[in-house]
């Protein structure tokens, strides 16, 4: 997976959470929910990914989509 994709997704996470999750924190790995991704932030992130990449994901129902790397793998596979 590309570094550019990870970086841009981390920026989208930061925007979707209105700064609650910093870019560096998202890039560092770990559970986005544990870092503060709530349901509103998840909806914003889903919309941002769809707008940016044309990829529809569902953070609530697709298993294992709780880390930046898991999301990046999903986006890379679907675009």
Automatic annotation (TrEMBL):
Entries under Pfam families matching the protein: PP-binding (PF00550)
Protein's organism: Allocatelliglobosispora scoriae
Coiled coil location: none
Highest classification ranks of the organism: Bacteria, Bacillati, Actinomycetota, Actinomycetes, Micromonosporales
Entries under SUPFAM superfamilies matching the protein: ACP-like (SSF47336)
Record keywords, A-Z: Phosphopantetheine, Phosphoprotein
Record InterPro entries: ACP-like_sf, PP-bd_ACP, Ppantetheine_attach_site
Protein name (database record): Carrier domain-containing protein
Keyword hit for Phosphoprotein: yes
Domain Carrier stretches: 1-79
């Amino acid at each position: 997976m590309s570094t550019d994709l990870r970086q841009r997704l981390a920026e989208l996470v930061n925007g979707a959470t209105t700064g609650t999750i910093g870019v560096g924190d998202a890039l560092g790995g770990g559970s986005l929910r544990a870092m503060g991704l709530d349901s509103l932030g998840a909806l914003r992130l889903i919309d941002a990914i769809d707008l940016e990449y044309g990829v529809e994901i569902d953070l609530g129902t697709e298993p294992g989509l709780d880390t930046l790397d898991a999301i990046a793998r999903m986006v890379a596979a679907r675009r």
